[in-house]
Amino acid sequence: MGSERVEMRKRQMQVHQEAAASVLQARHRMGNTPTNASNACCFCWCCCCSCSCLTVRSEDETIQRSTFERRTEGTTNCEESPKPSLDDARSWPMSFEKVMKSAAGRSCFRQFLRTEFSEENMMFWLACEELKKETNKTVVEEKVRQIYEDFISILSPKEVSLDSRVRDVINRNMLEPTSHTFDDAQQQIYTLMQRDSYPRYMNSSAYTDLMKSLEEPPPEP
After folding, report:
1. Which Gene3D superfamilies match (predicted)?
2. Based on C-alpha coordinates, what's the Rg of the chain?
């Protein structure tokens, strides 16, 4: 399983490197490519250059980043989250929307995604949901940058799989970050989870065991 994960990441890296290269080439033709380190640090969002801002972080930024990650990751184990009701869990096979609208459903599904080495998809989706609630412009810009570095950058171990069209949209949106910068990407990841991981979860032992535990009568005192 580990080797399959490595090969998948290699394929994703190759595709995303090609997409990033095409974006940089387009910017160079338009005269928008930074020509020195200081400019790169001001405008480098894609993490494709070697500017010093990628390796040097201030103490305040590190603290903000760790706080943001703790908030967006949240509960990572179905057993640690509020236990779903039997009716709630029974509704999940009806639609993926039922799972995603349930806090317990998201938590249990996320635990399953971890076993498939794709937990970053849920983490990214949740981070986008938190971003859309933010109204402070400064905080929005900081969260956008953190989400990019955590889930979009080809250098991130938690990079999500996006096609070149969506990546182009993101790179354009990064010029003026808003709380909706990642809307297209969030929808693509939602669709990926719906079509790919959700059917497997519904047929998995994880969901079957959960239902058995909810259907069992409570032990007598």
Report:
1. Regulator of G-protein Signalling 4, domain 2
2. 20
